[in-house]
Amino acid sequence: MGYSAPVALGGWRERVKRLSFPRARLTDNELVERTRSGDVRSYEELVKRYERLVGRVIYPYAGRDAAVEDLVQETFLRAYDRLSTFNPEYRFKTWLLTIANNLGIDTLRRRREIVEFNPDLHAPLTRGPDADADEADRARSVRDAVMTLPESYSVPLVLRYAEGLTYAEIAEIIGITVPALKSRLFRGRNMLAGRLEEKGETG
Length: 203
Hints:
Shape: elongated
Number of domains: 2
Structural class: mainly alpha
Strand content: under 5%
CATH superfamily of the largest domain: RNA polymerase sigma factor, region 2, helix turn helix motif
CATH topology of the largest domain: Rna Polymerase Sigma Factor, Chain: A
Radius of gyration: 22 Å
Order of helices and strands: HHHHHHHHHH
């Protein structure tokens, strides 16, 4: 009976430890595994880690901030429902963005609306206060030009040049081969350059 208090105290300490677990230090796959075991807060960490990136993928398909928010939420709900199918041999980020891209395609097929980029999400870094106005004008011109591109070109451009994903990751996300992706990026850049040239925004 003299051991009951230490045992109870040890159990309490373990519960506190679980509640305050530093999930931000865990890898994606570790968070997935903990989520599968019933730790919902581990999935909340995955959402916090990738919600902005998912929004960037979704935006060219949605074109409205309100729609983007709904589609980001739907992406994470779908991913949660399919978590048992996730193969830990692959990157969770790529798997998640594939779900986001497919949802975006489905949404676009239903709506067939003109797409555009979110200025807040896609504005480039400026080089200093004096360059802010010029950079803002340039960024606006690029966004306006990208807005005219089909999503089959705008999405790869965002993933490659705004997010820095590898060719292999992007190809897996949008479901094409790496050579086909490189060809699409090349054509997309040329189309974008043509749009900018027409507007006198070269150089």
